[in-house]
Amino acid sequence: MKMLVDIPKCIGSGQCALIAPDVFDQDDNGIVVVLREDPQDTPELREAAAVCPAAAIEFAAG
Amino acid sequence: MSTPLTTVHETVPGYPRVRDDYVDPARVLLDLPAISPLTFAGGSVGWLVTGFHEARSVLYDPRFSAERWRGDDTVRPIPRRIRENRGLGPGSFLSMDAPEHDRYRGLLTKFFTVRRMRALEPRIAEIVESCLDDLENAGRPADLVRHFALPVPSLVICEMLGVPYEQRAGFQRASARLLRQNVTEAEFEENFSALIAFVDDTIRAKHAEPGDDLISALVASGELTDTEINGIARLLLVAGHETTMNMLSLGTFTLLRHPDQMARLREDDTLVPLAVEELLRYLSIVNAFPVRVALEDVEVGGILITAGTCVAVSVPAANRDPELVEDPARLDVGRSRSSHLAFGYGIHQCLGQHLARTELAAGYRGLLKRFPDLRLAVAPEDVPMRSDMIIYGAHELPVTW
Ligand code: HEM
Ligand code: SF4
User: Where's the 4Fe-4S ferredoxin-type domain (chain A) (predicted)?
Assistant: First the structure.
């Protein structure tokens, strides 16, 4: 599994930082910061991607 | 297998706004196809979206405009002032599209991050405790809306914005009236102007004497005119208390009517954040919006929506779509977090969502702890529900303990 985060799409909702704080944070302007480029595939990670209002978090096989 | 369009897509004569059994979406909303024709309040025929996936695609797609003056509305015609001024004025980014919307929102996201809201937790808990004192001192029975659900978010947003709470009469009344479904042109005009004047005074005071608050920070940033700051502050003020207030009261009402769910929360208060998400989904207090206008022809769920047509998303219906969660009609405070649409979706998704989550968690937690024997002081049918308002909830909630 490979995670792809399209940062320019991010609207700073903070949902990912709330749900998967090990993987995501927000910078001073609220925009997503990826703490782990190669995170473990957890239910929280999938949930964060599913709720992202900007559809900015995706996964690719491999 | 093809069904004639006329039977599948019967025009819904008006947005079904009255709820079943106090909080459930009107049955007809749940029986409709994911997208059906709807007659809007101003008389135009557009579309009503009740399907979860279809709702998301509309709210995510920039070909659907949030500029309300372009279209029609679900439960009341667009006020003349909004049509003529092409919106609610500078800074009112809820009804703007990119890139204008993004500029304002971008200046504000930093005040509403998860981190910022975590830092506010102790202060919010303090405010909750002081309102609980007030409720207790009011004596049994007491109106939970007046003594708890309204003051908690009002105090929080006033403090955040730097609006003196002692002057709350100046905005609470105006903002409540603006959210009435049957507001007349004259009332809209009067209350809208009152709100502008009230916020103007506050901004002027911040120029003279800046404080450690959001309005002062916007003034100091030098990036916005006072008119723009006024639009932003009005939006935050209204959105910041009317919504959370209704979630606090309707959430309490609902837990009182589901003693098994209430007991689960009392037993294990770590469930509270999940309960907040579930109550947001289950209650979906945003009754008859968001509404968008197609800027070009767009296909959604197999339906061609032509340029200029309005689309209303029913959050209550979409949040009860089995495509979102299993057994959507069941309230389950331990349900794993869903992708509910209570805060919307796309670029307009609620800016204050983590503030609301923090207030709601602190509010429900505090209430359950303080009043182990909390109950309704009247029969449920005697609770005046807000079927006449843009945001659903209870006008009053008499409780005892
Ligand atoms: C439970 C409480 C709340 C609910 C259910 C709620 C719901 C919503 C929804 C559905 C939208 C999207 C509207 C659309 O797409 O047209 C929205 C936007 C917004 N909300 Fe909330 N809200 C809540 C609390 C708050 C609070 C506490 C604030 C405080 C500051 C706030 C500020 C805003 C703002 C500024 C927007 C406009 C965002 C934009 O256009 O980019 N809301 N809210
Ligand atoms: S959930 Fe999406 S929009 Fe929100 S902060 Fe994370 S990446 Fe950005």
Answer: 1-29
